[in-house]
Every structure is written in C-alpha cells, then in structure tokens.
Amino acid sequence: DRIAPPMGDFQGEWIRACKTDLKTSCNFDYNGLMTEQMALGLVAYRAGKKIEYDGATGRVTNAPEANAFLRREYRPGWEV
C-alpha cells in the first residue's frame, strides 16, 4: 500500500537538467530566494520587529541586534 500518491518524475527531471539546459520546476534560483525569505522571517520574529534587509551586504539595516541571528559561531572542527 502506498501512503502518499506518486510525486511525478522529479528525479528524472533533475537528471535531465544536469545533462541539458532544462530548467527544473523548482530550480536553485527560485529555491534560494524562497529559503532566504523564510530565514529572514525567522530573524524578524526572533528580533521582535520588522526588519529591513540589504541583500547586497547581507545585513539588517534598521536593527543591528538582528544581525546576530544571521551568523552562527561554529564549534572547532565544524567551521564552514
């Protein structure tokens, strides 16, 4: 028995995109922007206020304390 309906041929779409100039239905350009927007929503929530974000510099311009939520200090040996 299947728990969820089939999702289509997304694996095949991804392979064809790697081998050709096909643009996938959820490409990295789209996904990257959506992920950034979601993360900034969480930064605003944690800062407790509406934020203004400068994408070119990667900084919050109206709430300097919110910039602390944009970076993480990694443990030694786990740096990115």
Termini Cα gap: 42 Å
Shape: elongated
Q: Tell me the structural class.
A: mainly alpha
Main sheet: strand order? 1-2
Number of helices: 2
Beta content: 5-15%
Unreliable residue runs: none
Q: Round the mean pLDDT to the nearest integer and report it.
A: 88
Radius of gyration: 18 Å
Helix-strand pattern, N to C? HHEE
In short:
The chain has 80 residues and is mainly alpha-helical.
Write the layout of secondary structure elements.
Elements: H1 10-19, H2 28-47, E1 53-54, E2 59-60
Antiparallel strand pairs: 1-2
Describe the structure using short key phrases.
mainly alpha, 2 helices, 2 strands
Describe this structure in words.
- The structure is a single chain.
- This protein has 80 residues and is mainly alpha-helical.
- Helix content is 38%, strand content 5%.
- The chain contains 2 helices and 2 strands.
- The chain has helices spanning 10-19, 28-47, and strands at residues 53-54, 59-60.
- A two-stranded antiparallel sheet has the order 1-2.
- A hairpin with a 4-residue loop joins strand 1 and strand 2 (59-60).
- The longest helix is centred in the middle third of the chain and has 20 residues, at 28-47.
- It is elongated and about 45 Å long.
